[in-house]
Design goal:
Blueprint (H helix, E strand, L loop, with lengths): L4 E7 L7 H4 L1 H10 L2 E7 L5 H9 L5 E6 L1 H11 L7 E6 L5 H5 L6 H10 L1 E10 L2 E3 L2 E5 L4 H4 L2 H7 L2 H9 L7 E7 L2 E13 L3 E2 L2 E2 L13 E7 L4 H12 L8 E6 L1 E6 L4 E3 L2 E2 L5 E15 L4
Parallel strand pairs: 1-2, 1-3, 3-4
Antiparallel strand pairs: 5-6, 5-17, 7-9, 7-15, 8-9, 8-14, 9-12, 10-11, 12-13, 14-17, 15-16
Helix pairs in contact: 2-6, 3-4, 9-10
Length: 299
């Protein structure tokens, strides 16, 4: 009989209206039948998944979390502190689940568990944000929260256009930031309303937001920064270009890079949709193939 593998299983019980807790017993049964010795930890507060992963991740063969992008972000941040990192599995039970979409992981917990058991390992790039980490996006500015605050019924009825309408509706609330960007041979100094550095095929549930040539293991991050537009008409045009996956406009700067330096007055950042602090200087780096993640079979 083969030796059992060790699994760390972190559950966020409130993600997806308790979806993780509802499927817990069936998931444990599946993992046990697949030959795993499962140790379960349930989070009770923000930041706890990171602490658990950092403390317990070095003792397992695979670390799995059941929760949303925020829970996955926390677990990943903990795993990244380890020298010997376990394989990672993800059961998405949150609202947006962008990273799961990137990996072809379904929202159904049982089907997601089967990918952890039967899928293929994928060595994925990870982003470093000063001393923090992100799995798929670091962003600031006006559009950061729009995809998460647009009413779901509006998104369901008119799709991407709902985001454009939400952006234009909130034009008067837009705040610009004086930002200096340095990357490779380029340097920019301007007023920006939005910026994102990402390694993702999907952001806020929108596929192709960073263009059509994203590779999650190529050692490069995709970056996009939007200058402050003069009026709502230009803003609407910019938003349409971005949401169509064709970010080409005089008010849009987009490029690929291994490392980017950004300086500004203090402004709020989000990392994987979670609050990332208000640093005035940021160094963002691509860490090539830093973790191994179970994803849907590609063959």
């Amino acid at each position: 009989m083969s030796e059992k593998k060790e699994m760390l299983f972190i559950i966020n019980p409130v993600a997806g209206r308790g979806k993780a807790s509802d499927s817990r017993d069936k998931l444990l049964e599946l993992f046990t039948q697949a030959g795993y010795n499962v140790r379960v930890f349930t989070t009770n507060k923000s930041g706890e998944a990171k602490h658990i992963a950092a403390q317990e991740g070095g003792l397992c063969d695979i670390a799995v979390c059941s929760g949303g992008d925020g829970t996955f972000h926390e677990m990943l941040s903990g795993i990244m502190t380890l020298e010997d990192r376990p394989v990672i599995g993800y059961i998405p039970t949150g609202t947006t689940n962008d990273f799961a979409s990137n990996m072809g992981i379904p929202k159904d917990p049982i089907r997601a568990a089967r990918i952890i058991i039967e899928g293929e390992p994928f060595q994925c790039d990870i982003g470093a944000f000063n001393d923090e980490y992100f799995s798929y996006t670091a962003a600031f500015g006006a559009f950061t929260n729009v995809p998460y605050t647009t009413p779901q019924d509006l998104k369901n009825s008119i799709g991407k256009t709902a985001y454009v309408l939400e952006v234009v509706k909130n034009l008067q609330k837009l705040q610009s930031y004086r930002v200096q960007i340095r990357c490779n041979e380029w340097a920019f100094d301007d007023e920006f309303i939005f910026g994102v550095v990402a390694n993702s095929l999907s952001i806020a549930g929108i596929k192709g937001l960073m263009g059509r040539t994203v590779e999650m293991d190529d050692g490069l991050m995709e970056a996009m920064f939007i200058r402050k537009p003069p009026n709502a008409v230009v803003l609407g045009d910019v938003a349409q270009r971005v949401l169509s996956g064709k970010p080409y406009h005089e008010y849009i700067i987009s490029f690929k890079a291994r490392e980017i330096e950004i300086e500004s007055s203090k402004m709020p950042w989000t990392l994987d949709g979670e609050y990332g602090g208000m640093p005035d200087k940021v160094v963002i780096k691509d860490l090539p193939r830093a973790v191994t993640i179970m994803r849907a079979n590609q063959s």
